[in-house]
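Shipment paperwork, digital attachment
Item: protein structure file
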Amino acid sequence: MRKLCNNISHDVLVKDFYNKILHKRDKRFLLYNGLEFNDEVLAILPGVSIEEVLLSNFEKLLEINEKIENDYIQVIVKDKIKTLFRAEIPYIERYFENRINKIEVGKTADESLKKIINSEINKELCGVFKGIDKILYENNTIHSVISEFFIEKSNVLQIKSCYYCNIDFVNVYKEAKNNKYHFTLDHVLPKSKYPYFSISLFNLVPSCYTCNSKLKLANEFSISSDLAKICPSSEGFNFDENTTFTLEFNVNDSDFKSKIEKVQQIEDVIIDLKNKHSNNGVKEFIDIFNLQGRYEYHKNICFDLIDKRKKYPDKEISNIASLIKRDISTVKKDIFGYEIFESTNAPFEKYKQDIAEQLGIIKPQY
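Attachment content:
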């Protein structure tokens, strides 16, 4: 639940990714077909190059997608499929409506045709590219190169925990002197529907297996103006500012001391993940990744902070700092944990920081 590119400039990231993809010109890559990165790649968008599709920021990808969807897929592709399968027009209408409004597609009149129709649609989606027969995401080799890129950038990108849930570690580790990775790369715009963005840099988000392969697999994001606000690879990502983990009390309550003393066991802790501005995109994000339920399971972390705060009120912390001749902020870090005071995308970072703020351990951040 942190912006993916906070600690590296957009231009540097793009340049390095560009060089990684461009490095080898062999049959594993599109360039083997004689295409250049500045070639126009989209049949319906003159002037849009391979480079632009691969390297544009997420907001620009949404703009490109809107043009492709409205002017090509919902008109030309849909009409072609309807002409080919006239008896299945209701199913085809629902299929294409689902690309925009996430409705139930349902069954075909003749179920034996369903795979054939879906295959024909996929072929047409792949045909958005000029002169490319094989769709990008079917090429596993190029994905290994992209994975290598994220491994190399793991430190500057702070790939420590899942960028969706901030619960599970998604780290790089050593095995037999080689770097390995313990994360998946989620396609924000799923490659099954949007194959033309399947290796676009800012459509990829390092995530844990649970978020990517279990939860989001069956629940796609709605394509709307809210998506740029909840996509971690987007410049407009502001999920943290729009949400907060809350207790039933906070340090500003007049009866704070009596309320915190009532918390005697983990079961006494009540945590709520609030959507502060009732934003539809934020609600969808919380629901897709089941964040409320998953964080409920980790109430022990909150209980631990509450327990320590009861033992170490401000006066006690000040006395310790004076006794050992260290500053108060360092003492607090030693007691409550460094991740509360630093943004490094460590697991449970936002959760701990929001609770610490309500307990008066740190000052409000938003």
